[in-house]
């Protein structure tokens, strides 16, 4: 099946001069692979791959000159699973430098003067621009949830450890998780089912708890209104979390810095080739003591136990996916703070689009679920998507 690939290439040619979502387009490889793609549930579906994730025969450059020209010998686990299901990689999408803060050239398809978010910048923008119905991303702090919200697409962050990170260049093994970006929840559910067999549940009633995130940052009024409106439509309850989101955010920063300094120790020997943001993170990680690191992990462990107990009694926690719409400007990617607590706990997150601010920019909501109940989380996400429409 080549029609979907050809449609994607035509759409890419139309949008790429302005959006700049792609690092490398493998048109020849996609055209060669499409006719012989397995007759699976994703037969012929073109997809983009964040450029920290390996595709055999293509460079994985991680948004850094230190990885320029480094060719992947094999597909990453997630790419391999998608190929087996019949999907066809179209190429590599823009990532921030080593999936941290330093942005690439990608622009938000809803307003070119605004950031698409990061670090899964190109993947979110490629889906939002209608080039591909699926793109791969990752999350260590807010690298997928935030771009999904800013670009008005659906996002999924797998529970930490649920999907293999083989072939993914990460920052922090305790926090790194692969993820997906799609136009809507139905497409997301189809892809997850193809990857690991999880199917979305049919839900007659939804039990949601609302979290506004205001203890972590100033959440803009339009985003708070979106959370309240959706919560009210689904008869959700407000909640006081059984742990401190502020403490978890602080612990997340400790774990990420400590582990990043060790994951990128070789790159740290070339500070002149790294951005200021990344050099600062690595320096902070080198200064972090083993005792501080262990204390942060202990904080995470205790809070995870409390979170799993809470999520055994409700379907999901509903909250803002970002403090507001995509900020204006391309020199930063926005604030990831509202994702940090949940990423430290290793929980699955679905970002549901649909709301907009008064200027028409997308506002996404995040649903945080139980790692053993992803099918239920997908069913809840479908209900939230319907309520937002």
Please tell me about this protein's structure.
There is one protein chain. This protein has an eleven-stranded mixed sheet with strand order 1-3-2-4-6-5-10-11-9-7-8, sandwiched between helices. It has a domain at 3-196: Amidase signature (AS) domain (Amidase signature (AS) enzymes, Alpha-Beta Complex). The chain contains 13 helices and eleven strands. By secondary structure, the chain is of the alpha/beta class. Helix 8 crosses helix 10 (276-287).
Write the layout of secondary structure elements.
Layout: H1 3-19, E1 22-25, H2 27-33, E2 46-50, H3 77-84, E3 88-93, H4 121-128, E4 135-139, H5 145-151, E5 154-157, E6 177-182, H6 185-196, E7 208-210, H7 221-233, E8 237-238, H8 245-263, H9 265-268, H10 276-287, H11 290-311, E9 316-320, H12 340-344, E10 349-356, E11 362-368, H13 374-388
Parallel strand pairs: 2-3, 2-4, 7-8, 7-9
Antiparallel strand pairs: 1-3, 4-6, 5-6, 5-10, 9-11, 10-11
What gyration radius follows from the Cα positions, in whole Å?
A: 19 Å
CATH superfamily of the domain at 3-196: Amidase signature (AS) domain
Number of strands: 11
Low-confidence stretches: none
| Gross geometry | globular
Helix content: 25-40%
By CATH, the topology of the domain at 3-196 is Amidase signature (AS) enzymes
Overall structural class, as computed from helix and strand content, comes to alpha/beta
Mean pLDDT: 97
Task: Tell me which CATH architecture of the domain at 3-196 applies here.
Answer: Alpha-Beta Complex
Total number of helical segments?
A: 13
Q: Main sheet: which strands, in order across? A: 1-3-2-4-6-5-10-11-9-7-8
